[in-house]
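queue> pop job 88
queue> type: inverse folding (structure -> sequence)
queue> payload:
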């Protein structure tokens, strides 16, 4: 995973072909019109390896933060809303349909063309702590019970970027993470697009998760691990959160 591998463009490298980065399908009708980008401009901002490394650091920092603040957990999750990199024509057609409250059949038909109208397997991601999927015994965090400062710090965990989705999936599994979505496990960009199409785009998400269930870990166990290892790893994580 040291070098980015450029993927083929599904509908060719047309001189006049432009693509729009849609960071969130949930807010597409509220976003200002983004300027179309060429395939070279898209590739220039792809940073899959960086996103993978920052996700790894984020999970390590989150583990230390939860343990240091006495928050019970045996599962951590960072979730991302879904976005796409699509042709300008597709973007404009979808946005017009949503703005004009087109019927669902029309919207579904547009989404059915998403794979063919997307640039390679490149997608934007924005990972944040998933409150509902982070916690203990399959229960999400009781966010209201946390102090304002702890809430603030949890909300500050974020990793974003533009990635080759298939490379991201391979890298995440090499790190030992699980990848889930509202449609179940995601393996590749085809699963990603199918999830979007089957759910009409709105409200779609996927999550990267770490489980401690198999270790029969609890907060006390994590605290012990924290105390034993902190002296060795602290120099690597100067920016980890502690309140």
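queue> result:
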């Amino acid at each position: 995973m040291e070098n980015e591998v450029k993927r083929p463009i599904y509908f060719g490298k047309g001189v006049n072909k432009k693509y729009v980065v849609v960071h969130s399908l949930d807010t597409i009708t509220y976003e200002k019109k983004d300027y179309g980008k060429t395939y070279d401009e898209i590739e220039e901002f792809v940073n899959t390896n960086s996103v993978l490394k920052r996700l790894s650091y984020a999970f390590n920092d989150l583990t230390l933060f939860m343990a240091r603040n006495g928050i019970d957990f045996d599962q951590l999750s960072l979730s991302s809303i879904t976005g796409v990199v699509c042709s300008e024509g597709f973007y404009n057609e979808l946005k017009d349909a949503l703005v004009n409250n087109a019927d669902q059949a029309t919207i579904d038909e547009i989404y059915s063309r998403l794979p063919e109208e997307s640039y390679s397997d490149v997608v934007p991601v924005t990972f944040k702590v998933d409150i509902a999927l982070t916690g203990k015994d399959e229960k999400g965090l009781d966010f209201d019970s946390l102090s304002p400062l702890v809430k603030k710090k949890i909300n500050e965990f974020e990793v974003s970027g533009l990635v080759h989705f298939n490379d991201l999936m391979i890298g995440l599994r090499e790190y030992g993470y699980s990848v889930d979505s509202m449609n179940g496990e995601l393996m590749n960009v085809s699963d990603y697009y199918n999830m979007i199409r089957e759910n009409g785009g709105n409200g779609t998400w996927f999550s990267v998760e770490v489980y401690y269930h198999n270790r029969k870990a609890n907060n006390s166990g994590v605290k012990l691990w924290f105390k034993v290892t902190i002296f060795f790893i602290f120099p690597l994580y100067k920016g980890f959160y502690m309140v």
